[in-house]
Amino acid sequence: MVRLTVHLIAKLGSHSKSSRSESFQQYLRKLTHLNFSDKNIEEIDDLSVCRNLTVLYLYDNQISQICNLGFASNLTHLYMQNNNISCIENLSSLHKLSKLFLGGNSITVVEGLEELKNLKELHVEGQKLPCGEKLVFDPRSISCLSETLCILNIGKNNIDELWDLAPLRKLTHLFAADNQLHDIQELETVFSQWFKLRLLDLSRNPVCHKPKYRDRLITVCKILEDLDGKQINELTRQFLINWKASKDAKKKLEDGKDNKQQMTNPLTTSADFHLGPQHPSAQERSSFMSKLSENEKPGVTFRTDQVQADSRGRGTRGDYSTEWQALKI
After folding, report:
1. DSSP letters along 170-206, please?
2. What is the pTM of this model?
3. Which of 42, 49, 218, 310 is the most exposed place for a label (fewest CB within 10 A)?
4. Cα separation of 41 and 61, whole Å?
5. pLDDT band at residue 148 under the 50/70/90 scheme
């Protein structure tokens, strides 16, 4: 087992090139950058003497656990991608950490980040997940990162929705390529809350094949500069915004006309003939007919029987005469 120890630092470090008058302990205390990438390291030993360490490179190793970093209160950059880490832990004392690289590990839950009050970049792309599983996010960590996180890389993690990331309203860059995002309306809802988003990469997601995919996202993301690796022309953005505004206004006008027509209730509509006796319109017509009967002249009678026709199709003279006399009164 290869362990990262102060002796390994002494063996592979640059202390031999420094001044001979400086002791190894003094060298370790002044050390700010430490690069032990691709050294088959499996475990981190006690490095507490390196109290001024700010940047630590440990990528491309065999590390399975994040540990023994409690001393590194000045650490700002931690590179641990392409290891065997399965759990994000033991980072609570790294209050100055601004960039964390954990891509290419075996992490299934993004968690344990509640105390990282200055974290601006988080890279967790390409996790080695069990078949059929996706990377998920602890709401507590996301909530605590909502005021600081600017860059997030979650590519290639079988992610099919972004609802849990909606609180990250300070994001300027989102890398989410090679996932399973498919709901364009969900993306529009989430992105409409990210007012600072300037770069967005959703390439090779199912949603990219939706009609008007690019136009819709450019319209929602007001200051987006790059979508899926293609720059956005400001004239194009303004045209799409104006086009959407015109379309929405036209739809609102049409909806208003429809509502106005629905409020109109003419008496001649066929539906009125099927109204029940208690319906207001039925009662109004009943009152109207009553008044009409009261205004009829006395002695006037109207025939309700049909005019009888002779064999030649003409009505009899007596029938016509009777009706004519009635009409003359």
Report:
1. T-SEEE--SS----HHHHHHHHTT-TT--EEE-TTSG
2. 0.73
3. 310
4. 5
5. very high
